[in-house]
Each structure stands twice: as structure tokens, then as C-alpha cells.
Amino acid sequence: TQAEEFVNNNDIPGAIAKFKQALQLNPKIHFQPDTEAVQNNPEAFAKKLVASAYITQAEEFVNNNDIPGAIAKLKQALQLNPKIDLDPDTKAKDRNPQALVNKFKAQGLITQAEDNLNNGDFTKAVAVYKAIEKLQPPKEILAKYWNILCLQGSLRGHAKDVVKNACEKAVKLTPKDVNILDSRGLARALTGDTQGAINDFNAFIESTSYLQKKAQRQ
Predict the structure, then answer these.
(1) What Rg value do the Cα atoms of the chain yield, rounded?
(2) Taking the model in full, what pTM does it have?
């Protein structure tokens, strides 16, 4: 715990010293027991933790509109831990600082778009989503954003506006995501495309995840 405090202060030597003390007291200690691989190398583990802290700090820089500062932090993370995955939420290993900065910027914009939707300003929300698209976040993330607009737009009386824009874009990005098909099904139903809605809802109902949820509820 003391080592983690050193990490939070970017004091790598101090963190390494504490990890070494812990290892002397308990040679069998596992610094990160929630992972399969045994983590008991003080230097490597301290650098790994500091690198992760730099990623968190980079997001804070983005939120403060300091893009150069964010990129610098991510480059520091890569220097400390060349094997680090800057964005573990995506399937591929990401070592591109600019791509992660764009994702952080997109996350800030999505909050803005949600505020626009909650205030009934659909036009502004669409403009924000187009700005998100220009940032070119990972397709899984972009699909999630378009799906939110598809669903929320439909629920707020804009099904006609979103069905061929947001809904189709989301499906095109991740055609096998049944939750996105479910959202498009709602938009299709509200715009009179009964057969299209049935097809989307059937795909959702027949999905394994849906059947598991249904079994749990029963």
C-alpha cells in the first residue's frame, strides 16, 4: 500500500524500495493476485503501475484541453512499459497516444451530446456526434455512441431522423451486436418498417446472451 502511494507521486525508486521490502518479508508474495501471471518483480511492477497512472493523468490533461501534455504522459507510459496496452478496452493492443487522446476527447463529447438530448436539442446532439466521428475512435466505441443516439433519438420522437443515420451507422460498424440491432428494431418499428423491426428483434431474441438473461429471470 505504501508503494502504491509512492507510485501516485510518480516516485518510482521509492515504490521499488517498498516492493523489495515486501518481497523480503514474504518471498512468495504476489503483487497482483488478480492476474494469472505471478507479479513479484519490484522494478517491473513499479514501472507498470506508474505507466498506468500516466494514462489516468493523460485523461485529466485531455479534460483540461491540454492535448500536448496528454500525449507527453502517454509517451512516458510507453517508455516505462513498452508492452503496455494504452487502451485495454479494445481488442487490439493500442500503443498510439493520439488514438487514445482522441478517445478521451470523444468521451467528453458524448457527455455533451447526452446533455443536448436530455434538453431536447436533437440538432446539437447530432452535430456533436459528427464531431466524435471525425476523431475516429475505435469502431466498437463509435458504434456504441451511434447506438446511444439511435436509441435516445427514437425514444425522444426522432426515430425518422436516426433510423437511416445513427442506427444504420452503428449496425454497419458492428453488425453482430444484437443490442444495436435491438435499438434499430425500435427505430424501424416507430417508422413503420414492421418487417425490418421483426428481423432485428428476432436476432436479439435468438442471441445466446438474451437466452441466458431470460433463463436467469425465470
Answers:
(1) 22
(2) 0.64
Runs of H (alpha helix) within 64-177: 67-80, 97-118, 122-134, 139-155, 159-162, 168-173
Asked which of 56-65, 194-203, 208-217 is least confident by mean pLDDT, the reply is 208-217
The C-alpha cell at 136 is: 475516429
Query: Which burial class, exposed, middle or buried, applies to 211 when counting CB atoms under 10 A from its CB (0-12, 13-18, 19+)?
Result: exposed
Using alpha carbons, select from 217, 215, 210, 144 the residue that is nearest to residue 183.
144
Give me 11's grid cell: 516516485
Distance CA 187, CA 141 (A): 21
Distance (Å, rounded) from C-alpha 145 to C-alpha 124?
Answer: 15
The span from the CA of 17 to the CA of 183, in Å, is 53
pLDDT for residue 122 = 83
